[in-house]
């Protein structure tokens, strides 16, 4: 069943990092069912902005605090929750602007990836904490194309922080997709869907909001002032080298930690185990995989090594080995280490049938034993032995359904289990089946600009919840990293709330 037009339009926007429905399967090895009714057992909650944006001269500290105040007030206006700012380290909701691996198991991935995440209420010391990626271009009262609207993202993330999961309701601020600014913070009113859901958790407030202004922990007073900042303040131009995921081939495709990664140029897209696109906008390879050359313009092939689960990148006659998202010492090294000819690699994947690694180049393929670190005898062989698989592949990978997938151009082929013959009905389009594309769809700046101009302003969204996807890299109280020590900062396979993936071309 394919999504309808309205759904596809909505999916052309940034997402939160939490899953799309209340009962998710996190990216970790064990399934954890999140209790969608998790909530605070008290009604007076303290908050504190512990660290502020470091690279945003556009947003001063007072403005950031005021935006947090009003984003929390959105919820306390309608529910019996009272928020007050404190100066100490004991705040219930700790708010941080941070980058990359920030020691919570859910690292950020630089501009264009997850933009924020929050933890659900619970017993963990991180319950309620909300983190914003300081690599993003945070804005306030700026046009869509100039960055991420901090107020809109904060309202969504604080929804997670008080216990709300994502919803499919079209008008909800808790949708998985971010759709730009939601209007004046002084006048913003939650959609009815969100009011009902928070009422179900906490009941209905019987009086006016008791959210206190910054630094006032005693009684309500005049709210903080939000200066009327000038328009078009951002000096960060939209990125022009961001590839179009729907109308181009991919340099490499790999399954890593159970997720699918599609690499193109200097960027990559990520899909969860459930084959949900984390964000419609890509993250930058070198910002996430620390140790690759900063001037690397593309990769040829990537695979996760069986046995030690390290990740191997190929480019030209060199390769790199990563433990999580950090390169190992001594790399790059020549691909001759594998016994491969000095011609480079088109594709690499581990066949589930025998746990051997297969390398493809042109019309030949090799079989490598990663456990013994040696090439098997009798190779290379003619790739026509894989019946129906075309030569000169872009890349290949195995997937969690036990099948092998081969990619070339805009199409892919599927080989079931231990078979070496393509299934009937293939090839099929990559964009449509994997990357939320429709026919005649494009991610070009011109088309994105038109889409932005026609977006419905009443819709607000982001998607990343307990297992964390985009706009709201939502991490719940029960969320845990995919592996105990992902240097990738366990965050990348994470379970965050509104991981707002945003690129400068079309913000999340």
TrEMBL record:
Chain positions recorded as Zn(2+) 2 binding sites: 16, 156, 160, 166, 174
Protein name (Swiss-Prot/TrEMBL)? Peptidase metallopeptidase domain-containing protein
Q: Which organism is it from?
A: Albula glossodonta
The residues that hold Ca(2+) 3 are 109-110, 133, 136
Which Pfam families does this entry report, sorted A to Z?
A: Hemopexin (PF00045), Peptidase_M10 (PF00413)
Query: PROSITE patterns recorded for this chain?
Result: HEMOPEXIN_2
This entry carries the following GO cellular component terms, namely: extracellular matrix; extracellular space
Q: Which family does it belong to?
A: Belongs to the peptidase M10A family.
Binding, Ca(2+) 4: 251, 300, 394
Q: Motif Cysteine switch: list the residue ranges.
A: 14-21
């Amino acid at each position: 069943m394919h999504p309808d037009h309205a759904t596809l339009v909505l999916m052309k926007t940034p997402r939160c990092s939490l899953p799309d429905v209340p009962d998710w399967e996190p990216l970790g090895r064990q399934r954890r069912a999140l209790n969608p009714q998790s909530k605070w057992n008290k009604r007076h909650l303290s908050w504190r902005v512990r660290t502020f944006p470091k690279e945003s001269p556009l947003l001063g500290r007072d403005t950031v605090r005021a935006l947090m105040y009003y984003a929390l007030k959105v919820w306390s206006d309608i529910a019996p929750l009272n928020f007050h700012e404190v100066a100490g380290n004991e705040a219930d909701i700790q708010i941080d602007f941070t980058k990359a691996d920030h020691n919570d198991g859910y690292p950020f991935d630089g501009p264009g990836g997850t933009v924020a995440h929050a933890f659900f209420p619970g017993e963990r010391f991180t319950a309620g904490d909300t983190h914003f990626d300081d690599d993003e271009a945070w804005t306030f009262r700026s046009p869509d194309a100039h960055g991420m609207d901090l107020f809109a993202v904060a309202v969504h993330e604080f929804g997670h922080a008080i216990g709300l999961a994502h919803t499919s309701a079209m008008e909800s601020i808790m949708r998985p997709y971010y759709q730009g600014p939601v209007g004046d913070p002084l006048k913003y009113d939650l959609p009815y869907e969100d009011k009902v859901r928070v009422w179900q958790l906490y009941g209905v407030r019987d009086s006016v909001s008791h959210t206190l202004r910054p630094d006032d922990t005693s009684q309500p007073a005049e709210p903080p002032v939000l200066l009327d900042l000038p328009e078009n303040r951002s000096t960060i131009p939209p990125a022009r080298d961001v590839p179009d995921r729907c109308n181009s081939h991919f340099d490499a495709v790999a399954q890593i930690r159970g997720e699918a990664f599609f690499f193109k140029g200097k960027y990559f897209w990520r899909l969860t185990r459930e084959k949900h696109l984390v964000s419609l906008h890509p993250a930058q390879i070198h910002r996430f995989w620390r140790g690759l050359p900063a001037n690397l313009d593309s990769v040829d092939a990537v695979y996760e090594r069986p046995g030690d689960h390290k990740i191997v990148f190929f480019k030209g006659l060199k390769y790199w080995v990563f433990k999580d998202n950090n390169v190992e010492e001594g790399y790059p090294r020549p691909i001759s280490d594998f016994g491969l000819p000095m011609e480079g690699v088109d594709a690499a994947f581990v066949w589930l049938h025998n746990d051997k690694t297969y390398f493809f180049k042109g019309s030949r393929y090799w079989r490598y034993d990663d456990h013994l670190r040696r090439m098997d005898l009798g190779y290379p062989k003619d790739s026509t032995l894989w019946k129906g698989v075309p030569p000169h592949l872009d890349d290949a990978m195995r997937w969690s359904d036990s099948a092998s997938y081969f990619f070339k151009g805009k199409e892919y082929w599927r080989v079931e289990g231990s078979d070496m013959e393509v299934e009937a009905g293939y090839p099929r389009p990559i964009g449509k089946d994997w990357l939320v594309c429709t026919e005649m769809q494009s991610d070009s700046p011109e088309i994105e600009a038109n889409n932005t101009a026609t977006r419905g302003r009443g819709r607000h969204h982001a998607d990343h919840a307990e297992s964390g996807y985009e706009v709201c890299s939502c991490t719940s109280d029960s969320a845990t990293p995919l592996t105990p020590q992902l240097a990738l900062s366990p965050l990348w396979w994470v379970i965050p709330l509104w991981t707002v993936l945003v690129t400068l071309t079309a913000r999340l």
